[in-house]
Known about the structure:
Structural class: mainly alpha
Largest sheet: none
Number of helices: 2
Amino acid sequence: MRSRTRGHGQHRAVDEVTRLRAELDQERARSRDLRRQRDEAQAARDTANAKANQLGEALARAVEATRQNQTAVSSLTAHPAVADTQPIPVLPLHLAPFASTDPAHVPGT
Length: 109
């Protein structure tokens, strides 16, 4: 007489197929989770690269603006008209020629 706990060959094969299908379902779920994580990592990498590119472009613009400003300032100070300019003497009003102490006096009249 056979033992009832072991079952016969067909039952054991059906049980093995059921077990393998459950394992396959678990592996499919893990695979979906890994694909989702990969997609999230790629999106984060793309965002970081875009920000790095924006930063690089902003830095290049800042360097160029600084260079242009330095060129403009050095050009002005090197210009002969600027170098030859003398300060304009300014005298206090009471020492200025044609000064009047009369409050009603309008200069040039």
